[in-house]
Amino acid sequence: MPLFLAGIGASAGGLEAVRALLSHLPLTRKLAYVVAQHQAADFNAQKLVDLVQPNCPLRVEVAQSGRTLLPDHVYWLPAGQDGRVDGKVLLLAPGSGVSKPSVDSLLQSLATNFGSRALGVILSGAGGDGVLGCRAIQAAGGLTMAQSPETARFPGMPTAAIQAGVVDRILDAEKMGNLLLQRLTDREAPPGMATLLELVQRATGVDFRGYKEETLQRRLQRRLNGLKLPGLEAYFELVRRRPEELSQLQQDFLVSLSGFFRDPECFAALSGELKAWLLHHRGPVRVWVPACATGEEVYSLAMLLVEMLGAEQASQRCSLEACDLNSVALETARRGIYSAEAVSKLEPTRLQRHFVSTGNGYRVSELLRSMCRFQQQDVLTAPIPERLDLISCRNLLIYLQSGLQGELLRRFRKSLRPGGLLFLAPSETTGTVGATLFTPVDKQHRLYRSRGGLSA
Ligand SMILES: C[S@@+](CC[C@H](N)C(=O)[O-])C[C@H]1O[C@@H](n2cnc3c(N)ncnc32)[C@H](O)[C@@H]1O
Protein backbone atom coordinates (compact mmCIF):
# COMPACT_ATOMS: atom_id res chain seq x y z
CA MET A 1 0.00 0.00 0.00
CA PRO A 2 1.57 3.38 -0.93
CA LEU A 3 2.65 5.41 2.06
CA PHE A 4 1.58 9.02 2.56
CA LEU A 5 3.84 11.26 4.61
CA ALA A 6 2.91 14.37 6.58
CA GLY A 7 5.63 16.83 7.62
CA ILE A 8 4.59 18.91 10.61
CA GLY A 9 6.47 22.19 11.09
CA ALA A 10 6.27 24.17 14.32
CA SER A 11 8.29 26.58 16.38
CA ALA A 12 7.51 28.77 19.39
CA GLY A 13 4.19 27.78 20.95
CA GLY A 14 4.13 24.73 18.73
CA LEU A 15 4.04 22.02 21.39
CA GLU A 16 0.46 22.81 22.35
CA ALA A 17 -0.63 22.72 18.69
CA VAL A 18 1.32 19.54 17.89
CA ARG A 19 -0.33 17.86 20.91
CA ALA A 20 -3.79 18.99 19.79
CA LEU A 21 -3.12 17.69 16.29
CA LEU A 22 -1.59 14.36 17.34
CA SER A 23 -4.24 13.53 19.92
CA HIS A 24 -6.94 13.71 17.23
CA LEU A 25 -5.22 11.55 14.65
CA PRO A 26 -6.95 8.48 13.30
CA LEU A 27 -5.14 5.18 12.63
CA THR A 28 -4.94 4.82 8.86
CA ARG A 29 -2.28 2.18 8.09
CA LYS A 30 -1.28 4.53 5.25
CA LEU A 31 0.09 7.69 6.81
CA ALA A 32 3.32 8.45 8.73
CA TYR A 33 4.32 11.77 10.31
CA VAL A 34 7.60 13.61 10.85
CA VAL A 35 7.62 16.53 13.27
CA ALA A 36 10.14 19.34 12.77
CA GLN A 37 9.77 21.59 15.78
CA HIS A 38 12.48 24.19 16.30
CA GLN A 39 14.29 23.41 19.55
CA ALA A 40 17.32 24.77 21.40
CA ALA A 41 20.45 22.78 20.50
CA ASP A 42 20.73 21.14 23.94
CA PHE A 43 17.07 20.20 24.22
CA ASN A 44 16.12 16.56 24.74
CA ALA A 45 13.37 15.69 22.24
CA GLN A 46 12.49 12.58 24.26
CA LYS A 47 10.86 14.92 26.81
CA LEU A 48 8.47 16.17 24.12
CA VAL A 49 7.72 12.63 23.01
CA ASP A 50 6.95 11.62 26.59
CA LEU A 51 4.57 14.56 26.93
CA VAL A 52 2.71 13.82 23.73
CA GLN A 53 2.56 10.01 23.69
CA PRO A 54 -0.07 9.45 26.41
CA ASN A 55 -2.78 11.24 24.41
CA CYS A 56 -1.77 10.07 20.96
CA PRO A 57 -3.18 6.87 19.47
CA LEU A 58 -0.11 6.50 17.21
CA ARG A 59 3.40 5.49 18.23
CA VAL A 60 5.54 8.58 18.85
CA GLU A 61 9.33 8.31 18.92
CA VAL A 62 12.47 10.40 18.57
CA ALA A 63 13.63 10.02 14.95
CA GLN A 64 16.77 8.03 14.21
CA SER A 65 18.74 8.33 11.01
CA GLY A 66 18.39 5.49 8.51
CA ARG A 67 15.07 4.19 9.80
CA THR A 68 12.38 3.16 7.31
CA LEU A 69 9.20 5.12 7.93
CA LEU A 70 6.21 3.09 9.07
CA PRO A 71 2.54 4.11 8.87
CA ASP A 72 0.82 5.29 12.05
CA HIS A 73 4.19 6.34 13.52
CA VAL A 74 5.20 9.87 14.46
CA TYR A 75 8.93 10.62 14.18
CA TRP A 76 10.10 13.63 16.19
CA LEU A 77 13.30 15.20 14.84
CA PRO A 78 15.92 15.65 17.56
CA ALA A 79 17.42 19.02 18.52
CA GLY A 80 20.10 20.45 16.24
CA GLN A 81 19.39 18.00 13.40
CA ASP A 82 17.73 18.53 10.04
CA GLY A 83 15.64 15.68 8.71
CA ARG A 84 14.96 14.68 5.14
CA VAL A 85 13.52 11.62 3.49
CA ASP A 86 15.14 9.55 0.81
CA GLY A 87 12.48 7.19 -0.52
CA LYS A 88 10.85 5.88 2.66
CA VAL A 89 14.02 6.28 4.74
CA LEU A 90 14.43 9.17 7.16
CA LEU A 91 17.91 10.69 7.25
CA LEU A 92 19.29 13.10 9.83
CA ALA A 93 22.20 15.52 9.47
CA PRO A 94 23.47 18.40 11.63
CA GLY A 95 21.21 21.38 10.94
CA SER A 96 22.77 24.20 8.94
CA GLY A 97 20.13 26.94 9.14
CA VAL A 98 19.32 29.41 11.92
CA SER A 99 16.30 27.38 13.06
CA LYS A 100 16.76 23.68 13.55
CA PRO A 101 15.33 21.32 12.52
CA SER A 102 14.54 23.10 9.26
CA VAL A 103 10.89 22.79 8.26
CA ASP A 104 11.71 23.84 4.69
CA SER A 105 14.28 21.09 4.05
CA LEU A 106 12.00 18.44 5.53
CA LEU A 107 9.00 19.49 3.42
CA GLN A 108 11.07 19.94 0.24
CA SER A 109 12.34 16.38 0.57
CA LEU A 110 8.76 15.16 1.11
CA ALA A 111 7.73 16.91 -2.11
CA THR A 112 10.55 15.28 -4.06
CA ASN A 113 10.01 11.80 -2.67
CA PHE A 114 6.27 11.60 -2.06
CA GLY A 115 4.83 13.96 -4.71
CA SER A 116 1.05 14.05 -4.42
CA ARG A 117 1.26 11.82 -1.31
CA ALA A 118 3.14 14.54 0.58
CA LEU A 119 1.30 16.63 3.17
CA GLY A 120 2.70 19.79 4.73
CA VAL A 121 1.40 21.19 8.02
CA ILE A 122 2.45 24.54 9.49
CA LEU A 123 1.65 25.17 13.15
CA SER A 124 2.39 27.93 15.65
CA GLY A 125 5.77 29.65 15.44
CA ALA A 126 7.56 32.85 14.55
CA GLY A 127 9.39 33.48 11.26
CA GLY A 128 8.92 32.13 7.76
CA ASP A 129 10.32 28.60 7.92
CA GLY A 130 7.98 26.31 5.98
CA VAL A 131 7.04 28.69 3.14
CA LEU A 132 9.50 27.18 0.65
CA GLY A 133 8.62 23.66 1.76
CA CYS A 134 4.87 24.20 1.34
CA ARG A 135 5.48 25.75 -2.07
CA ALA A 136 7.42 22.65 -3.14
CA ILE A 137 4.68 20.32 -1.83
CA GLN A 138 2.00 22.25 -3.69
CA ALA A 139 4.07 22.18 -6.85
CA ALA A 140 4.47 18.41 -6.52
CA GLY A 141 0.70 17.98 -6.23
CA GLY A 142 0.61 17.42 -2.44
CA LEU A 143 -1.65 19.10 0.11
CA THR A 144 -0.67 21.89 2.51
CA MET A 145 -2.45 23.21 5.58
CA ALA A 146 -1.77 25.84 8.21
CA GLN A 147 -3.09 26.34 11.70
CA SER A 148 -5.59 29.21 11.76
CA PRO A 149 -3.43 32.11 12.98
CA GLU A 150 -5.99 33.25 15.55
CA THR A 151 -5.65 29.89 17.38
CA ALA A 152 -1.84 29.84 17.18
CA ARG A 153 0.17 31.11 20.17
CA PHE A 154 2.65 32.56 17.69
CA PRO A 155 0.85 33.22 14.39
CA GLY A 156 3.99 34.22 12.41
CA MET A 157 4.76 30.90 10.71
CA PRO A 158 1.22 30.01 9.59
CA THR A 159 0.62 33.63 8.55
CA ALA A 160 3.80 33.73 6.45
CA ALA A 161 2.75 30.56 4.60
CA ILE A 162 -0.82 31.81 4.10
CA GLN A 163 0.36 35.19 2.83
CA ALA A 164 2.80 33.52 0.43
CA GLY A 165 -0.20 31.72 -1.10
CA VAL A 166 1.21 28.24 -0.42
CA VAL A 167 -1.52 26.92 1.88
CA ASP A 168 -4.50 24.91 0.62
CA ARG A 169 -6.45 24.77 3.90
CA ILE A 170 -6.46 26.88 7.08
CA LEU A 171 -7.92 25.24 10.17
CA ASP A 172 -7.55 24.54 13.89
CA ALA A 173 -4.90 21.98 14.84
CA GLU A 174 -7.41 19.49 16.30
CA LYS A 175 -9.40 19.45 13.05
CA MET A 176 -6.43 18.58 10.85
CA GLY A 177 -6.62 14.82 11.51
CA ASN A 178 -10.01 14.62 9.78
CA LEU A 179 -8.74 16.45 6.73
CA LEU A 180 -5.71 14.16 6.55
CA LEU A 181 -8.04 11.17 6.66
CA GLN A 182 -10.23 12.63 3.92
CA ARG A 183 -7.14 13.13 1.82
CA LEU A 184 -6.36 9.40 1.98
CA THR A 185 -9.83 8.18 1.16
CA ASP A 186 -11.53 10.83 -0.98
CA ARG A 187 -9.47 11.12 -4.12
CA GLU A 188 -12.37 11.17 -6.59
CA ALA A 189 -13.24 14.27 -8.57
CA PRO A 190 -16.34 16.01 -7.17
CA PRO A 191 -19.35 16.02 -9.48
CA GLY A 192 -19.08 18.89 -11.88
CA MET A 193 -15.31 18.76 -12.36
CA ALA A 194 -15.66 17.12 -15.80
CA THR A 195 -18.06 19.87 -16.91
CA LEU A 196 -15.74 22.52 -15.59
CA LEU A 197 -12.76 21.11 -17.48
CA GLU A 198 -14.82 21.06 -20.65
CA LEU A 199 -15.73 24.73 -20.14
CA VAL A 200 -12.08 25.61 -19.58
CA GLN A 201 -11.13 23.83 -22.77
CA ARG A 202 -13.80 25.62 -24.77
CA ALA A 203 -12.80 29.01 -23.37
CA THR A 204 -9.01 28.66 -23.54
CA GLY A 205 -8.27 25.73 -25.85
CA VAL A 206 -6.32 23.98 -23.10
CA ASP A 207 -7.42 20.45 -22.32
CA PHE A 208 -6.73 19.52 -18.69
CA ARG A 209 -8.63 16.22 -18.80
CA GLY A 210 -5.49 14.10 -18.78
CA TYR A 211 -4.06 15.97 -15.75
CA LYS A 212 -4.15 14.49 -12.27
CA GLU A 213 -7.54 15.35 -10.82
CA GLU A 214 -6.41 15.77 -7.26
CA THR A 215 -4.01 18.57 -8.25
CA LEU A 216 -6.69 20.34 -10.29
CA GLN A 217 -9.16 20.00 -7.43
CA ARG A 218 -6.77 21.62 -5.04
CA ARG A 219 -5.99 24.46 -7.44
CA LEU A 220 -9.75 24.94 -7.92
CA GLN A 221 -10.29 24.95 -4.16
CA ARG A 222 -7.67 27.69 -3.88
CA ARG A 223 -9.47 29.73 -6.48
CA LEU A 224 -12.80 29.19 -4.67
CA ASN A 225 -11.20 30.27 -1.38
CA GLY A 226 -9.74 33.36 -3.06
CA LEU A 227 -13.14 34.28 -4.46
CA LYS A 228 -14.82 33.38 -1.14
CA LEU A 229 -17.21 31.00 -2.89
CA PRO A 230 -18.69 28.02 -1.01
CA GLY A 231 -18.47 25.47 -3.85
CA LEU A 232 -18.62 24.55 -7.49
CA GLU A 233 -22.29 25.48 -7.91
CA ALA A 234 -21.51 29.07 -6.94
CA TYR A 235 -18.48 29.00 -9.22
CA PHE A 236 -20.58 27.94 -12.23
CA GLU A 237 -22.92 30.81 -11.40
CA LEU A 238 -19.96 33.22 -11.42
CA VAL A 239 -18.69 31.82 -14.73
CA ARG A 240 -22.11 32.42 -16.29
CA ARG A 241 -21.79 36.10 -15.35
CA ARG A 242 -18.04 36.42 -16.00
CA PRO A 243 -16.89 33.87 -18.62
CA GLU A 244 -13.38 35.42 -18.63
CA GLU A 245 -12.97 33.87 -15.17
CA LEU A 246 -12.19 30.57 -16.93
CA SER A 247 -8.94 32.01 -18.34
CA GLN A 248 -7.92 32.96 -14.83
CA LEU A 249 -8.70 29.45 -13.62
CA GLN A 250 -6.66 28.02 -16.50
CA GLN A 251 -3.66 30.08 -15.35
CA ASP A 252 -4.30 29.02 -11.75
CA PHE A 253 -4.22 25.34 -12.77
CA LEU A 254 -0.57 25.84 -13.77
CA VAL A 255 2.11 25.90 -11.10
CA SER A 256 5.00 27.83 -12.60
CA LEU A 257 7.69 27.32 -10.01
CA SER A 258 11.30 26.94 -11.11
CA GLY A 259 14.87 27.62 -10.02
CA PHE A 260 18.43 27.76 -11.30
CA PHE A 261 20.16 24.35 -11.21
CA ARG A 262 17.21 22.90 -9.33
CA ASP A 263 18.43 19.57 -7.88
CA PRO A 264 22.14 20.41 -8.37
CA GLU A 265 23.29 16.78 -8.18
CA CYS A 266 21.04 15.98 -11.17
CA PHE A 267 22.52 18.88 -13.16
CA ALA A 268 26.00 17.63 -12.22
CA ALA A 269 25.12 14.20 -13.66
CA LEU A 270 23.77 15.80 -16.84
CA SER A 271 26.84 18.00 -17.12
CA GLY A 272 29.15 14.94 -16.96
CA GLU A 273 27.19 13.21 -19.71
CA LEU A 274 27.15 16.30 -21.97
CA LYS A 275 30.84 16.89 -21.46
CA ALA A 276 31.69 13.35 -22.54
CA TRP A 277 29.46 13.69 -25.62
CA LEU A 278 30.88 17.08 -26.63
CA LEU A 279 34.39 15.61 -26.68
CA HIS A 280 33.58 13.91 -29.98
CA HIS A 281 30.55 15.86 -31.24
CA ARG A 282 31.35 18.85 -33.43
CA GLY A 283 27.96 19.81 -34.91
CA PRO A 284 25.01 21.86 -33.65
CA VAL A 285 23.57 21.21 -30.19
CA ARG A 286 19.78 21.25 -30.10
CA VAL A 287 17.99 21.46 -26.77
CA TRP A 288 14.26 21.64 -26.06
CA VAL A 289 12.76 22.57 -22.70
CA PRO A 290 9.00 22.07 -22.53
CA ALA A 291 7.18 23.55 -19.51
CA CYS A 292 10.02 25.98 -18.82
CA ALA A 293 7.96 28.25 -16.50
CA THR A 294 10.01 31.35 -15.65
CA GLY A 295 13.09 30.19 -17.58
CA GLU A 296 15.66 29.33 -14.91
CA GLU A 297 16.03 25.74 -16.13
CA VAL A 298 16.70 26.87 -19.71
CA TYR A 299 19.31 29.43 -18.65
CA SER A 300 20.96 26.83 -16.36
CA LEU A 301 21.40 24.53 -19.37
CA ALA A 302 22.72 27.42 -21.46
CA MET A 303 25.25 28.24 -18.70
CA LEU A 304 26.49 24.63 -18.73
CA LEU A 305 26.97 24.76 -22.50
CA VAL A 306 28.80 28.10 -22.41
CA GLU A 307 31.05 26.77 -19.64
CA MET A 308 31.84 23.65 -21.68
CA LEU A 309 32.23 25.13 -25.14
CA GLY A 310 33.24 28.72 -24.50
CA ALA A 311 31.16 31.75 -25.47
CA GLU A 312 31.88 31.79 -29.19
CA GLN A 313 31.31 28.09 -29.88
CA ALA A 314 28.23 27.99 -27.67
CA SER A 315 26.62 30.97 -29.37
CA GLN A 316 27.31 29.54 -32.82
CA ARG A 317 26.37 25.93 -32.19
CA CYS A 318 23.75 25.80 -29.42
CA SER A 319 20.06 26.57 -29.65
CA LEU A 320 17.70 26.15 -26.73
CA GLU A 321 13.99 26.24 -27.56
CA ALA A 322 11.59 26.44 -24.65
CA CYS A 323 7.86 26.68 -24.17
CA ASP A 324 5.17 26.96 -21.55
CA LEU A 325 1.45 27.65 -21.40
CA ASN A 326 1.77 30.33 -18.77
CA SER A 327 2.18 33.70 -20.49
CA VAL A 328 3.07 35.56 -17.29
CA ALA A 329 5.86 33.11 -16.48
CA LEU A 330 7.13 33.34 -20.07
CA GLU A 331 7.34 37.10 -19.80
CA THR A 332 9.80 36.69 -16.91
CA ALA A 333 11.73 34.09 -18.89
CA ARG A 334 12.08 36.39 -21.89
CA ARG A 335 13.16 39.39 -19.81
CA GLY A 336 15.66 37.21 -17.99
CA ILE A 337 15.67 39.39 -14.86
CA TYR A 338 15.64 37.59 -11.53
CA SER A 339 15.61 38.66 -7.88
CA ALA A 340 18.64 38.45 -5.62
CA GLU A 341 16.89 35.57 -3.82
CA ALA A 342 16.40 33.65 -7.06
CA VAL A 343 20.14 33.76 -7.83
CA SER A 344 21.31 33.37 -4.24
CA LYS A 345 22.18 29.68 -4.58
CA LEU A 346 24.28 30.15 -7.72
CA GLU A 347 28.03 29.78 -7.35
CA PRO A 348 29.54 33.30 -7.21
CA THR A 349 31.70 32.61 -10.30
CA ARG A 350 28.58 31.67 -12.26
CA LEU A 351 26.72 34.73 -11.10
CA GLN A 352 29.63 36.91 -12.13
CA ARG A 353 30.09 35.25 -15.50
CA HIS A 354 26.49 34.94 -16.63
CA PHE A 355 24.60 37.83 -15.00
CA VAL A 356 24.63 41.60 -14.93
CA SER A 357 23.37 43.45 -11.87
CA THR A 358 20.40 45.70 -12.57
CA GLY A 359 20.39 47.39 -9.18
CA ASN A 360 17.42 45.57 -7.73
CA GLY A 361 18.00 42.25 -9.50
CA TYR A 362 20.17 40.33 -11.94
CA ARG A 363 19.78 39.96 -15.67
CA VAL A 364 21.13 36.93 -17.53
CA SER A 365 23.82 37.88 -20.02
CA GLU A 366 23.00 38.88 -23.56
CA LEU A 367 24.89 35.80 -24.75
CA LEU A 368 22.61 33.43 -22.83
CA ARG A 369 19.51 35.30 -23.92
CA SER A 370 20.59 35.11 -27.55
CA MET A 371 20.89 31.31 -27.28
CA CYS A 372 17.40 30.76 -25.78
CA ARG A 373 14.00 31.20 -27.41
CA PHE A 374 10.73 31.10 -25.49
CA GLN A 375 7.33 30.43 -27.01
CA GLN A 376 3.84 30.15 -25.60
CA GLN A 377 2.76 26.66 -26.60
CA ASP A 378 0.83 23.70 -25.28
CA VAL A 379 3.33 20.85 -25.01
CA LEU A 380 0.55 18.35 -25.48
CA THR A 381 -0.53 19.65 -28.88
CA ALA A 382 2.28 21.77 -30.36
CA PRO A 383 4.77 20.20 -32.75
CA ILE A 384 8.07 19.26 -31.11
CA PRO A 385 11.31 20.32 -32.81
CA GLU A 386 13.13 17.43 -34.47
CA ARG A 387 16.53 15.74 -34.14
CA LEU A 388 17.01 17.03 -30.65
CA ASP A 389 20.10 16.22 -28.64
CA LEU A 390 18.48 16.90 -25.28
CA ILE A 391 14.94 17.25 -23.97
CA SER A 392 14.83 18.64 -20.46
CA CYS A 393 11.26 18.11 -19.27
CA ARG A 394 11.23 18.58 -15.54
CA ASN A 395 8.23 18.75 -13.23
CA LEU A 396 5.59 18.47 -15.91
CA LEU A 397 4.94 14.71 -16.00
CA ILE A 398 4.01 14.78 -12.29
CA TYR A 399 0.88 16.75 -13.20
CA LEU A 400 -0.25 14.29 -15.85
CA GLN A 401 -2.11 11.01 -15.63
CA SER A 402 -0.17 7.98 -16.78
CA GLY A 403 -1.92 7.76 -20.18
CA LEU A 404 -0.86 11.26 -21.12
CA GLN A 405 2.62 10.73 -19.68
CA GLY A 406 3.05 7.73 -21.98
CA GLU A 407 1.79 9.66 -24.99
CA LEU A 408 4.21 12.51 -24.34
CA LEU A 409 7.15 10.15 -23.79
CA ARG A 410 6.43 8.51 -27.14
CA ARG A 411 6.54 11.92 -28.85
CA PHE A 412 9.76 12.82 -27.01
CA ARG A 413 11.34 9.61 -28.24
CA LYS A 414 10.39 10.46 -31.84
CA SER A 415 11.85 13.97 -31.63
CA LEU A 416 15.15 12.97 -30.09
CA ARG A 417 17.90 11.80 -32.36
CA PRO A 418 18.91 8.18 -31.62
CA GLY A 419 20.87 8.26 -28.39
CA GLY A 420 19.58 11.76 -27.51
CA LEU A 421 19.12 12.53 -23.81
CA LEU A 422 15.96 12.95 -21.76
CA PHE A 423 16.30 14.75 -18.42
CA LEU A 424 13.42 14.46 -15.92
CA ALA A 425 12.96 15.67 -12.32
CA PRO A 426 13.64 13.49 -9.24
CA SER A 427 9.95 12.74 -8.63
CA GLU A 428 9.43 11.58 -12.22
CA THR A 429 10.40 8.45 -14.13
CA THR A 430 9.80 7.15 -17.63
CA GLY A 431 7.47 4.49 -16.15
CA THR A 432 6.58 1.24 -17.88
CA VAL A 433 5.82 2.78 -21.30
CA GLY A 434 9.04 4.78 -21.20
CA ALA A 435 11.12 1.71 -20.34
CA THR A 436 10.61 0.47 -23.89
CA LEU A 437 11.59 3.85 -25.36
CA PHE A 438 14.49 4.97 -23.17
CA THR A 439 17.46 3.35 -21.46
CA PRO A 440 18.55 4.83 -18.13
CA VAL A 441 21.93 6.58 -18.27
CA ASP A 442 21.77 7.56 -14.61
CA LYS A 443 18.55 6.32 -13.01
CA GLN A 444 19.10 8.13 -9.71
CA HIS A 445 19.44 11.49 -11.43
CA ARG A 446 16.67 10.80 -13.94
CA LEU A 447 18.80 10.90 -17.03
CA TYR A 448 17.76 8.65 -19.91
CA ARG A 449 18.90 7.98 -23.44
CA SER A 450 16.56 7.49 -26.34
CA ARG A 451 16.71 3.86 -27.47
CA GLY A 452 17.77 3.09 -31.00
CA GLY A 453 21.49 3.71 -31.27
CA LEU A 454 24.03 6.19 -30.06
CA SER A 455 24.58 8.18 -33.24
CA ALA A 456 25.32 11.86 -32.95
C1 LIG B 1 6.50 23.26 -11.90
S1 LIG B 1 6.72 24.10 -13.42
C2 LIG B 1 8.20 23.37 -13.99
C3 LIG B 1 9.25 24.38 -14.31
C4 LIG B 1 10.59 23.84 -14.73
N1 LIG B 1 10.51 22.84 -15.76
C5 LIG B 1 11.36 23.30 -13.54
O1 LIG B 1 11.33 22.09 -13.30
O2 LIG B 1 11.96 24.10 -12.81
C6 LIG B 1 5.49 23.34 -14.44
C7 LIG B 1 5.20 24.16 -15.68
O3 LIG B 1 4.47 23.34 -16.59
C8 LIG B 1 3.69 24.22 -17.36
N2 LIG B 1 2.70 23.43 -18.10
C9 LIG B 1 1.74 22.63 -17.60
N3 LIG B 1 1.04 22.07 -18.60
C10 LIG B 1 1.60 22.52 -19.76
C11 LIG B 1 1.33 22.29 -21.12
N4 LIG B 1 0.34 21.48 -21.50
N5 LIG B 1 2.08 22.93 -22.04
C12 LIG B 1 3.09 23.77 -21.66
N6 LIG B 1 3.40 24.01 -20.38
C13 LIG B 1 2.65 23.39 -19.44
C14 LIG B 1 3.10 25.15 -16.32
O4 LIG B 1 2.62 26.34 -16.88
C15 LIG B 1 4.31 25.37 -15.42
O5 LIG B 1 4.98 26.54 -15.76
General description of the model:
The chain has helices at residues 14-22, 45-52, 103-114, 131-139, 156-163, 176-185, 193-204, 213-227, 232-241, 245-253, 264-278, 296-309, 311-317, 327-335, 348-354, 366-371, 402-415, 431-435; strands spanning 4-10, 31-37, 59-62, 67-68, 73-76, 81-86, 89-94, 118-122, 143-147, 169-171, 285-290, 318-324, 337-338, 355-357, 362-364, 372-376, 388-392, 416-423, 438-442, 447-450. With 456 residues, it is of the alpha/beta class. It folds into 3 domains: 4-185, Methylesterase CheB, C-terminal domain (Rossmann fold); 193-253; 264-450, Vaccinia Virus protein VP39 (Rossmann fold, 3-Layer(aba) Sandwich). Strands 3-5-2-1-8-9-10 form a 7-stranded parallel sheet, sandwiched between helices. A 7-stranded mixed sheet has the order 16-12-11-17-18-20-19. A 3-stranded antiparallel sheet has the order 4-7-6. Helix 3 packs parallel to helix 4. The longest helix is centred in the middle third of the chain and has 15 residues, at 213-227. The protein is globular, with a radius of gyration of 23 Å. The chain starts with a strand and ends in a 6-residue tail after the last strand. It binds S-adenosylmethionine. The site of S-adenosylmethionine has 25 residues, from strand 12.
Report how far the terminal alpha carbons are from each other.
43 Å
Order of strands across the widest beta sheet?
Answer: 3-5-2-1-8-9-10
User: CATH class of the largest domain, please?
Assistant: Alpha Beta
Mean pLDDT: 92
Number of domains: 3
- Identify the bound ligands: S-adenosylmethionine
CATH homologous superfamily designation of the largest domain: Vaccinia Virus protein VP39
